[in-house]
């Protein structure tokens, strides 16, 4: 992975085995994809009705806001974003 030779940080990755060598020396820490984790627990729950998998799915679900929360957030943030963009436009036009 020559293109990552100078990189340091925490990239979000999808568990692709081709990236394993990037994490070997510990300079780069992987931030895994929660969707991949969720899928494994989902498959386990479907196959065996595992109570541990059910709890894991509940915990993962709690990380995400509900659709109604997102709708409220969007409706309350839209005016703020709009006025901020207007402020930005006014500032840069006069600068």
Explain the layout of strands and helices.
Blueprint: E1 12-13, H1 20-23, E2 31-32, H2 34-48, H3 51-62, H4 67-94
Parallel strand pairs: 1-2
Helix pairs in contact: 2-3
Q: Main traits of this protein?
A:
95 residues; 62% helix; two-stranded parallel ribbon; single chain; 3 domains; 4% strand; mainly alpha
Terminal Cα span? 44 Å
Strand composition percent: under 5%
Secondary-structure element string: EHEHHH
* Strand order across the largest sheet: 1-2
- Overall structural class, as computed from helix and strand content, comes to mainly alpha
> How would you describe the shape?
flat
Mean pLDDT: 81
Description:
With 95 residues, this protein is mainly alpha-helical. The protein has three domains: 1-32, no CATH class; 34-64, no CATH class; 66-95. 62% of the residues lie in helices and 4% in strands. It is built from four helices and two strands; from the N terminus they run βαβααα. It has helices at 20-23, 34-48, 51-62, 67-94, and strands at 12-13, 31-32. Strands 1-2 form a two-stranded parallel ribbon. Strand 1 (12-13), helix 1 and strand 2 form a beta-alpha-beta unit. Helix 2 packs antiparallel against helix 3. The longest helix has 28 residues, at 67-94. The model has no long low-confidence stretch (mean pLDDT 81).
In summary, what is this structure?
The chain is mainly α and 95 residues long.
């Amino acid at each position: 992975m020559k293109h990552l030779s100078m990189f340091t940080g925490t990239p979000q990755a999808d568990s692709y085995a081709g990236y394993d060598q990037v994490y070997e020396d510990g300079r780069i820490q992987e931030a895994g994809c929660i969707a991949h984790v969720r899928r494994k627990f989902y498959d386990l729950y479907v196959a065996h009705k595992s109570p541990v998998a059910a709890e894991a799915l509940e915990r993962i679900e709690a990380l995400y806001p509900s659709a109604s929360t997102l709708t409220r957030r969007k409706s309350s943030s839209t005016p703020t974003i709009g006025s901020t963009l207007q402020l930005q436009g006014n500032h840069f036009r006069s600068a």
